[in-house]
Amino acid sequence: MTAVDLKLGKRPPVDEERPFPPYVELPRTVPRRAWHYVRLVSVAAYLGLVVLLVAEPEDGLYLLWNVVVPLLPVMFFVAPGVWRNICPLAAANQMPRSIGRSRALKTPTWLAERGHFVAITAFLLAVALRRTVLNTDGRVTAIVLAATITVALVGGLTYRGKSGWCSSICPLLPVQRLYGQTPFVTSPNSHCEPCVGCTKNCYDFNPPVAYQADMTDANPDWGASRRVFAGLFPGLVLGYNLLPSPDASGDGTYYLRLAACAAASAGIFLAVQGLTRLTWAKVAALWGATAFVSFYWFAGTTIAGVAYDATGADMALLRWPLRAVALALAVAWLVRTFALELRFKQIVAAPVTTALRIGADRLQGLQDEAEHSENPCVRVEPEGRELVSKAGSTILDVVEAAGLPIEAGCRMGMCGADPVAIRAGAANLDPMTPDEAATLRRLGLPDGNRLACQAVLRGDCTVALKPDRTGPPAAPAPRTSAPARSIGKVVILGGGIAGVSVAERLREADVDCEIALVNREPHHLYNRMGISRVIYGRSAMAGLYLLPDDWFETNRVDSWLNTLVSSVDTEDGVVRMATGEVIEFDHLVFATGARPIVPDVPGFGVPGTFVLREASDAAEIRAHAQRTGARRAFVGGGGLLGLEAAYSLHKLGISTTVLERGERLLARGADETASQMLTDFLTGTGIEVRLGVSVEKLAGTETLEGLRLSDGTVATTDLFLCAIGVAPDADLARAAGLEVNRGIVVDEQMRTSSPNVYACGDVAEFEGRSWGLWPTAVRQAEVVAAQLLGEHQAFTQEVPPMVLKGVGVALASAGRIDPEATDEVVVHQDLAAGTYAKLVVDDGQLVGGLLFGHTREVPHLQRLVGDRADVTTILADLRAGDVEALTRLGR
């Protein structure tokens, strides 16, 4: 086995740098944990200053106004991201979230849309009060600072993300937005892990583009407040420094004069824009640069005075080089800002083309005619958002990165959780796969819709996040032949994807057979991979259903919801319900799925202990957390379900610990490096991970109160969720006399030990293994349907792709990740970006891979591994660390 192992602190080479990368794609040179310690020091320094202002007012005022304040504008100007990472007010605001104590409410509309006006007003009041009160009264200044950090803390306790302070009403926000639009040094946000989409055009999410997006926002009021502040800002700076002292003119006169200066500046701002027809963004940049130079024209003298106090040497001339540096920075900043605006307009503000609706049969032919782009723009209607990405991304990648609402499921084109309408640019998407086409047919959607997870971008497109449901449905799949025999009546036990897929394939091929589907759940087919969202979300099952309301009626499938089967008689061909009703069958399909493994732990079963398998489980967890005010939770199991559940509890505001009795997380689906990176990521978000331990006992009678771990640790807790695995739900089959090992034993045609009885999905065991994954269930269902139709298909056991979803970072594997002796293994780990790739190549073919932090490349890895694609043409790029080469193969 040969290996190419790159562990670098730099990015792999790319053809062209992405112009507007979100913070999750920026290189990270300072570890997240280091920022936590810096913020602790920052908050301590802030509180120390408050104390100093009370105890020694003169010293406190000197430190605040002569040292701290003169440093802030240049930091906003040069490295605003650094300030936002260390700001004590931001640290106080985010503290409740980091310890799981935030209510994480959505901000009311007035605050979300008008918060910037509140921030501007607070800033104007602070500046106006400086010369009358704050510059001279240390105790009043201390009260103002203490009240400010308290409001920031309350905002974090109440509202989600930074929406309750940093990105809405912080008095420093208007200055930061104006000055920070073209940073010389970009530092990725270290607070928002993960991003919760709390703020429109968030600076922390996408630093280079946030202010430009503000100025061109479709909502005229949104950009108006930014223009107002930019217009009055230079006048405010000049008025503060040039007006006579309030002691001479009186406070009232001083306030009026200061307001007049600001108003005059705003008036000139409007006049210049009207006369020159410069864009609002350019005029705002000119006014921002003027305010910056004006501030340091006067602050240069203050800084020189501080230097004199510190050294005793005459530093009067120091003000001139300081002024020159400020001017040079402003000129360079203007040049860069104008260039950024031009780039923004070129990429984002292109006109929307006429809507195009096109069927799948035309997509392949139009690929050669499409104009591809390295940085395609996705325009989202009706929100009006324009999202810039990189060729090879899926629509799902782009929409999720922007924080827009969209469901995500298997990410393989089989579940149908994420249909979107393509309004324009359909030819700029990769062709539809057979799996995607079949899923869209099941959803009953007409041409012009795609699954966001499968729609790979090669150029610009316009989408709506709600699918079109008008128009004729997509053409049915071509029938290969009429059924070789009369099928009769088919009864399917189980309403999950396996059972529904059997019914769907049968109905597509045979219009005459009778189909009954018995489902013990009260819901039709839903996105089981999205039930974690029911825990922390407020929309319950909305958006999770994967079938149109009339699907069963349209497809003439007799649906039995919320119905339990008491027994099956395979000899007489009878299914008996717990209600006493009976259904006869000619063919029976077991698709009963799996049930969660319940731990043999004393105390499990008291209120507050849960498993998570169905939507009802998730709903009960959320209800319990609300009823009891749960603040502490433990999750047993470090597999896919356990980690997704832990992340959901964390997003609900509950302090969460994951317990994994093995040596690492995801031991079956990831190698040691990826497991460690995942552990570090989860720990960085505030989720505690404990390895090598399990629960020995749960304490409590009327409700859960605490637990004891295998290492002797005793802890209080409000909630325990067990996610240690599932077992095939085969009791009914065992009672019916079928051969059952762990699951129902089947052959390659999915036949059981009883004639005319089949099994598929999580309940089936083939060659000693039950996979328990969506793609496998769909494939097995296709084999069952083929058998019933008299066609010959065989199920072949392959390692299905694995995707960790909904935890804030991408982790996926496909094929074999444990290489064989003759394989070549290409490994690339970028420590700065927090990414890792491991690719297994056998004689030039990609036979396996593992990706961590590479969201865009995941669907390409799955496709290439599934096709055993020849990667010899990109192998040199992969060896050099260019993981993006996966997205370029086959364009």
- What structural class do you assign from the helix and strand content? alpha/beta
Q: Would you report the number of β strands?
A: 31
Secondary structure tally, helices: 27
Question: Could you describe the largest sheet, including whether it forms a barrel?
Answer: 6 strands, mixed
Average predicted confidence as pLDDT? 84
Shape: elongated
Low-confidence residue ranges: 1-18, 348-371
Describe the structure.
With 891 residues, the protein is an alpha/beta fold. The protein has five domains: 2-14 and 810-888, FAD/NAD-linked reductase, C-terminal dimerisation domain (Enolase-like, domain 1, 2-Layer Sandwich), CATH 3.30.390; 56-181 and 190-346, no CATH class; 360-464, Beta-grasp domain (Ubiquitin-like (UB roll), Roll); 489-592 and 737-788, FAD/NAD(P)-binding domain, CATH 3.50.50; 609-724, FAD/NAD(P)-binding domain (3-Layer(bba) Sandwich). The chain has 27 helices and 31 strands. Strands 1-29-30-31-28-27 form a six-stranded mixed sheet, with helices on both faces. A five-stranded mixed sheet has the order 3-2-6-4-5. The longest helix has 32 residues, at 280-311. The protein is elongated, with a radius of gyration of 31 Å.
